[in-house]
Design goal:
7 strands; alpha/beta; Rossmann fold; 11 helices
Length: about 260
């Protein structure tokens, strides 16, 4: 993907913010358990910066565990949805490559499904600047499990139909390489979980993905219609069990 295409995809979420918030999956409680274990501290009472917070799906999960969370989000549309749904959570405009925060002001910097929109040569040093000694940078991605036949079949259909279709699951370790390159100790966890959704909700989730959102409605519609037909053939009751693989990477800043 070229830089201009990357930028277009990154900015595509604002117009679909409400759909994104309603249809995207949240995360299992086991994620937060693993995050606390790898970070070596509880979230309760921690100062957390959630970068690329979107509509606040992860932000709310972290706050529910007792963290003081500041959301950082570049898209006005996404930030507006976050404020509408969670008016008690503070949100500021910014990007991971240039965080609008003071040095040593956070115990944890998190990227939920968002680190791939940054330039690691800039975003990793920025996170380390903002972190206090002993603080942690946490990255995670929640992707559908391609080991399940119907998910793999859907991926093949979307790759054939959409020019900018991408699937991050096969290259996630590459996102952790900039952490190890700076001498940081990286802890990892892989979780498997699932959720049950209606076909309409599943298609709304697909439509909120950047590879759909960058397309005009007349180009999205036939692909989504074809997906509906293909999925109904295997799920005639219109209910799907979506399997997920969640990969978590946590790198601690040295304590001294």
């Amino acid at each position: 993907m070229t830089d201009s295409q990357q930028q277009a995809h990154a900015l595509s979420f604002g117009p679909v913010a409400e759909q994104y918030d309603a249809a995207r999956p949240s995360y299992p409680d086991a994620l937060v358990d693993a995050l606390e274990r790898l970070a070596g501290r509880p979230l309760r009472g921690a100062d957390v910066v959630d970068v690329g917070a979107g509509t606040g799906i992860a932000t709310r999960l972290l706050a529910a565990r007792g963290a003081r969370v500041l959301a950082v989000e570049p898209s006005p549309g996404m930030a507006a949805r976050l404020r509408a749904v969670s008016p008690d959570l503070p949100v500021v405009k910014g990007v991971g490559d240039e965080l609008p925060l003071h040095d040593g002001s956070a115990d944890l910097v998190t990227y939920a499904q968002a680190f791939h929109w940054t330039d690691p040569e800039r975003s990793v040093p920025e996170a380390l600047r903002v972190l206090r000694p002993g603080g942690s940078l946490a990255l995670w991605w929640n992707v559908k499990d391609r080991a399940v036949d119907w998910i793999a079949a859907q991926e093949r259909r979307l790759a054939a139909a959409l020019p900018s279709y991408h699937f991050y699951g096969s290259s996630l370790t590459a996102f952790a390489e900039p952490l190890a390159a700076r001498g940081l100790e990286v802890g990892t966890a892989r979780l498997h979980w699932e959720r049950q959704v209606t076909l309409d909700s599943h298609l709304a989730d697909l439509g909120s993905r950047s590879y759909f959102a960058v397309l005009p409605a007349e180009r999205q519609a036939p692909v989504l219609a074809a997906e509906r037909e293909a999925l109904l053939a295997g799920h005639p009751d219109g209910v799907l069990t979506e399997p997920y693989v969640l990969d978590l990477f946590v790198a601690r800043r040295p304590a001294a």
